[in-house]
Amino acid sequence: MSLRTTFFSAIFALLSVLGVTTIFAALPATDSQQQPLPTLAPMLEKTVPAVVNIFTATHIEVKQNPLLSDPFFRYFFDVPEQQQQPTKRTEQSLGSGVVID
């Protein structure tokens, strides 16, 4: 669990202990002349199903620095002997999009 997640979990736990049920201000339903305010709800009902989450994960082989293979460099800088297996890392990307028909 990240520090950020832990922090927000602690804040929400403290608020619930204090009896605070909502931490966000409610939006008014009417304007100053008591006319109902327009909302985005009808538009969102139609468009939300078209919104998509895009997640990619790519495995990349990281090449070793050629200096680490040089015996003189390793001896001079006292670099410990290590296995010469290629290192792999995962690169992730995240985005969103809209499906258009």
Question: What's the gist of this structure?
Answer:
The chain has 101 residues and is of the alpha+beta class. Helices cover 28% and strands 24% of the residues.
What does this structure look like?
This protein is α+β, with helices and mostly antiparallel strands. The protein is built from 3 helices and 2 strands, in the order H-H-E-H-E. The model has no long low-confidence stretch (mean pLDDT 79).
Keywords:
two-stranded antiparallel ribbon; alpha+beta; single chain; 101 residues
Helix content: 25-40%
Gross morphology is elongated
* Mean pLDDT score: 79
Output the number of helix runs.
3
List the helices and strands and how they pair.
Layout lengths: L2 H15 L23 H7 L3 E12 L8 H6 L10 E12 L3
Antiparallel strand pairs: 1-2
